[in-house]
Amino acid sequence: MNDGRVRRICDFMSRYAVWLFGSGCTCIRLEKNIRRMAVAAGVDVEVTILPRHIHLTVSEPQGGDAVTTIASIQTLPISYDTVTRLSRLSWDVADGIVSCDDAHAELDRVIATPCPERSWLPVIVGAANAAFCRLFGGDIIAMAVVFVATVAGVVIRQMLAGKHVDNRIVVFACSFVSAVLAAGDGLFGFGSTPAVAIGSSVLYLVPGIPFLNSFSDLVDGHYICALGRLMQAVVLTCCLSAGLCCGMLLMNVGMF
User: Fold this and answer.
1) Window from 95-104, 154-163, 202-211, 218-227 with minimum mean pLDDT
2) What is the pTM of this model?
3) Which residues of 118-152 are buried (b: 16+ CB within 10 A; e: fewer)?
4) Edge to edge, what strands does the sheet with 66-72 contain?
5) 117-197-134-148 Cα dihedral, nearest 10 degrees
6) Across the strands, what pairs with 47?
7) Cβ-contact 229, 25 below 8 angstroms
8) Which residues lie closer than 8 Å to 117 by C-beta, 6 or more apart?
9) Own/partner pairs for 134-137, CB < 8 Å, 24+ apart?
10) What whole-number distance in Å separates Cα of residue 19 and Cα of residue 21?
11) I want to staple 201 with a disulfide (CB 3.0 to 4.6 A). Which of 91, 113, 149, 189 is the partner?
12) pLDDT of 101 strictly over 80
């Protein structure tokens, strides 16, 4: 094995790790996928995962040539579809279906694959949020208001995300719009549970995946990544709360 092949493998694994981690996978999945492909390629690999960078060293067995890269993690929307495709690619490499030399092209294909059609997503999320409203004691009017507020918020989130707006601004804007629309339940006397409508209208923005990934990384011993993801989730929660409070203040809805 020559240094050129080791470098190609290292470059591929570095790009792969950056996209996999940025799409919302846990540290333990990233490590398993990388090591699975390393075994198939006949190389040794060491991975250090940090909140903003991935440090990767690929070397020949028995102390041969070694190449090290440090890659910045992509700021990407969380996509389980991308995580699934990349995980399948790692198994294809491990099973010999995709050669190490062809893995670059397969990775490019996965990255270039557009997200599945999301035109139905606002309706599904709106229905789920309306169900949460009912679960917390909201009446039928509150459920309808929450549905409309959630659909509007999800559409705005899709539009802003498509323009690559910072996720913190997106969460604040969507929370603000949903809170303003949900406040109509109380201001116009539509229903008897306006507080439940306002509180439920922003639940779709709760950063559940960063919280869950943080806990998973903590259990697996990746304490730095766990803390980083926890802080990310906390910041997004603060943006959500700020948008909710601003919307309530604008609509003159008492918070206490």
Assistant:
1) 95-104
2) 0.83
3) eeebbeebbeebbebbbebebbebbbbbbbbbbbb
4) 44-49, 53-59, 66-72
5) -30
6) 56
7) no
8) none
9) 136/196, 136/199, 136/200, 137/193, 137/196
10) 6
11) 149
12) no
Angle subtended by helix axes 208-220 and 223-250, to nearest 10 = 160
φ, ψ (nearest 5 deg) of residue 74: -70, 140
- How far lies 116's CA from each of 81, 151, 167, 190, 237, in Å? 8, 18, 20, 37, 27
At 37, which helix (H) or strand (E)? helix 27-41
Name the residue with tokens 């670059």.
Answer: 104
Percent of the chain exceeding pLDDT 70 equals 94
Tokens of 173: 């804007």
User: Residue 183: is it exposed, middle or buried by C-beta count within 10 angstroms (0-12/13-18/19+)?
Assistant: buried
Amino acid at residue number 92: D
Sign of the torsion formed by the C-alpha atoms of 10, 16, 22 and 28:
negative
Give the span between the Cα atoms of 256 and 80, in whole angstroms: 39
Nearest to 55 by CA among 27, 24, 78, 36: 27
The mean per-residue pLDDT over the stretch 23-33 comes to 92
- Written as six digits, the tokens of 28 are 């333990």
Give the pLDDT confidence score for residue 256 in this predicted structure.
47
Least confident of 122-131, 149-158, 181-190: 181-190
Counts for the chain of helices (H) and strands (E), in that order: 11, 3
Per-residue tokens: 32: 């398993």
